[in-house]
Write a structure and sequence with these properties.
It is built from no helices and 11 strands. With 124 residues, the chain is an all-beta fold. The N and C termini lie far apart (37 Å).
Length: 124
């Protein structure tokens, strides 16, 4: 399974960015996918996740109300729409996918496959 994340960049506080994660190499549409981020000198933290159907979504408190996770109708691409960005959102954002069902999607250990990460920098 290969995950390709894209869409990061430099934006001013209050701005928006849209991240994409394209999955290939398996029947990726049948599995949940999630986004995590890692700031300098910090561990990887959960941001948002979606079920395989896209009907159930999960958000970290820091993302609730500002970020929206969704997946394409073909379900092999997941998006993270980020609005009202803040300097503390600066991090490398990673998309991940598990290879089993029924796990806690807010936990990093639940994910088997990871993309390469895309840098998001929010200036004040």
């Amino acid at each position: 399974v290969q995950l390709q994340a894209s869409g990061g960049g430099l934006v001013q506080a209050g701005g928006s960015l849209n991240l994409s994660c394209a999955a290939s190499g398996r029947t990726s549409k049948d599995y949940a996918m999630g986004w995590f981020r890692q700031a300098p000198k910090k561990g990887r933290e959960f941001v948002a996740a979606t079920s395989w159907s896209g009907r159930t979504t999960y958000y970290a408190d820091s993302a609730e109300g500002r970020f929206t996770i969704s997946r394409a109708s073909a379900k092999n691409t997941v998006y993270l729409q980020m609005t009202d960005l803040k300097p503390e959102d600066t991090a490398v954002y990673f998309c991940g996918a598990p290879n089993v069902y029924g796990i806690d999607l807010t936990q990093e250990a639940s994910y088997t496959y990871w993309g390469q990460g895309t840098q998001v920098t929010v200036s004040s």
